Amino acid sequence: MEFGYITQYFDLAQVTLWAFWLSLLSVIFFNRREDKREGYPQEAVQIFGKTILTEGFPFMPAPKTFKLPHNGGDVVKPGPERPQYDFKLEQVDRFAGAAYRPVGNPMLAGVGPGAYAVRANKPDLTNAGDPRIVPMRVAKHFAVVDKDPDPRGMTVIGADGQVGGKVTEIWVDRAEPQVRYLELEAGNKKKVLVPIALCVIKGQKREVKVRSINGIHFNDVPTLSNYDQITLAEEDKVSAYYGAGTLYATPNRAESVL
């Protein structure tokens, strides 16, 4: 028998290989269970008006308590879930599997490109425990450099070329110094935010172009509870509104190209 062989047909290399596969499978099994701490059990199908819940394989893990930073309390997962989405939908027909269509303003229906996650109604925090995304009137140490155009006071133009409002403030990220939102006063005098990634600032024309929605749609952008900070839930809802506009802002966007 050669060195390293346990038997004539089973050697140390085979033991190592099988140990690797078993350890890999155990890691996959563990991670698959851990990712079921949220979102499970799932709603599988609706049969005769009854929703069936399913866990799938592997089974869900035992509840675990997580301590949130900055005295944010404890969260037990899996555990009781807060109320989920307020879908504004209706089925096009009365049978299981029938398609849904938005009701009312499709950009507020919470579906398609306008879908959002139900996040905590608390602001994201810096390492120091301060609200992370705030307007420059709060983060007074931020300033616009001289070589860049200052969007404050510029007119906001929608995809249809109509005026949506006027920029009144810039919102910045105090953890990763950069601009996150522009605050504007819409046509109905309501204060709303627009993500900076969706803005094209034209300094010479003193305009901010937003192609996601039309000018009139700025009146219905979800508002904030406190205009000195934005919560995680509000971030998702604001961004989802503009995302939905890429499909629903005009009738032709919702139709096929061919």
Account of the protein in words:
The mean pLDDT is 87. A hairpin with a 2-residue loop joins strand 1 (42-47) and strand 2. Among the domains are: 5-35; 125-253, Photosynthetic Reaction Center, subunit H, domain 2 (Photosynthetic Reaction Center, Chain H, domain 2, Alpha-Beta Complex), CATH 3.90.50. The protein is of the alpha+beta class and 258 residues long. The chain is built from two helices and 13 strands, in the order αβββββββββββββα. The strands form four sheets. Strands 7, 8, 9, 10, 11, 12 and 13 form a seven-stranded mixed sheet that branches. The chain has a two-stranded antiparallel sheet with strand order 1-2. Residues 148-212 form the PRC-barrel domain. The chain crosses the membrane at residues 12-30. Pfam families: PRC, PRCH. This is Photosynthetic reaction center, subunit H, bacterial.
List keywords for this structure.
single chain; 258 residues; alpha+beta; Photosynthetic Reaction Center, Chain H, domain 2; seven-stranded mixed sheet; two-stranded antiparallel ribbon; 2 helices; 16% helix; Photosynthetic reaction center, subunit H, bacterial; membrane; transmembrane
